[in-house]
Design goal:
It is built from 1 helix and 8 strands, in the order ββββαββββ. The protein is mainly beta and 148 residues long. The protein has a 5-stranded antiparallel β-sheet, covered by helices on one side. Strands 2-3-4 form a 3-stranded antiparallel β-sheet, with no helix packed on it. The radius of gyration is 17 Å and the shape is elongated.
């Protein structure tokens, strides 16, 4: 089995929306991203950090779009490859489109935070295939598996 990575998935955290206040008048939030969940915390210098919610994302629709390989090159710039609806498997606030943009596949999402009174975070997924990576298209025979 080839041990080279398929590529690099970059998760851009764009902004927080209506985040819960955890300090006196505001919060100083940061995001911790793990394989199974995405969590927002409020950083505190003198006390423990306060949890400000968590959100799950399902990246399988994004990985499925990547498997289109060379077919993507025929698509016009800005073309929506797939639309993902909010469901119990994700924390989407609204429909999210997976888009072919300038030779890259991106997906913007606004995620509702769970286990907190209010708040959302806006993120963007972006895939990079670099030197030394197998790429998704070369592994499509064996399939791509992921845990989210």
């Amino acid at each position: 089995m080839d041990q080279k990575p398929l590529g690099l998935l970059t998760i851009h955290v764009k902004r927080g929306i209506n985040l819960a206040i955890r300090d006196h008048r505001s919060s100083d939030p940061y995001v911790v991203i793990t394989v199974a969940e995405q969590t927002v915390f409020d950083w505190d210098k003198f006390t423990g950090d306060d949890k400000m919610g968590d959100a799950n994302i399902d990246i399988q629709p994004y990985l499925d779009a990547l498997k289109m390989g060379m077919e993507l090159l025929r698509l016009p710039n800005g073309c929506a490859i797939k639309r993902v609806q909010p469901s119990r498997l994700n924390c989407l606030s609204d429909e999210s489109s997976i888009v072919w943009n300038n030779g890259k596949i991106t997906q913007d999402m606004i995620l509702r935070l769970n286990n907190v009174e209010c708040g959302e975070i806006e993120i963007m997924l972006e895939w990079h295939e670099g030197a030394g990576c197998r790429g998704v298209t070369s592994s499509s025979k064996g399939g791509v598996s992921s845990s989210t």
